[in-house]
Each structure stands twice: as structure tokens, then as C-alpha cells.
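Memo to structure team: turn this sequence into C-alpha cells by end of day. - J.P.
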Amino acid sequence: MTGIGNAATLKLALERLDETASGSALDTTVHALAEIRRLVAEVLMDIETPKDGDRRRDMRMAQTAISTVRKDGALVDCVITDLSVGGALIDADADLEIQSEIEVDVPRAGPVRARVIGRSPEGLHIAFLDPTEAQRKAILDGFTALLWK
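Reply from structure team:
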């Protein structure tokens, strides 16, 4: 299959998200997208997919989004450098401990509760805690907007 065919397959899968009516259908669609991750990687190098040994199960997209983190009422500026429906990589000028619960303002999705699960030279690795269906869809819609702009 050519890159153009792969892009068309991806576009159809992403368009199905707009037709999704329930949370379980959205989860099914998200996992279907994960199954075509090799197609995505061939077409769009900005999307990274989980590698062997990687605990992430969702596709993620490199991006630069100015945002904020809230911890115990304090608001701190941050930059989201990598985003998926399950979490993000952020760079924040805050001393956040591993396992800290925070709230991150995710573009299009609004404030999402998260937990700091790791720290690396790239930044803080966070996992979203129970994002709503609307927040998950907003993140995926953001992927679509970045892919087709």
C-alpha cells in the first residue's frame, strides 16, 4: 500500500470518531487506531507509537502546546511536548514529586486530572486519571486537526 493509501485509511478511521456515540465505541475506535499505527508511522513521522517494552498503549503525538499545571491550588506554566489520550510529557518549572496528583490544562480538552508517573531529561511523564469521554474525544480531535491542517 502506498503512503497515499495509508493516509486515506487513517483519515477514514479518524473520521469514524465523529460518529462515535458511546464510551465503549470510542475505546474500540481508539484501539483500532492503535492497530493501524504502522500505517500512521509510514505516513506521518510526528506520531510515535508504543515500542516493545513500552508501557503506553496509546498513540501519541509530538507537539508544543503552552499550558498550565495546578497542584494544591498553585498554578504553574508548562509546555506539553507529547500527548496521547492516556497521558502526556510536560516540561514545567515546578518541583513535582512522583505520584503527585495534578491538574493539567490540555488544549481542546480543558483541565484533566493526572498523576506524575516519571521524570526524565525530557520532562515529567504524566498519566491522565479518568478523563471524561468528552476530554478523550477532544484530544483525538486535536490529533485530527494537527494531521489535516
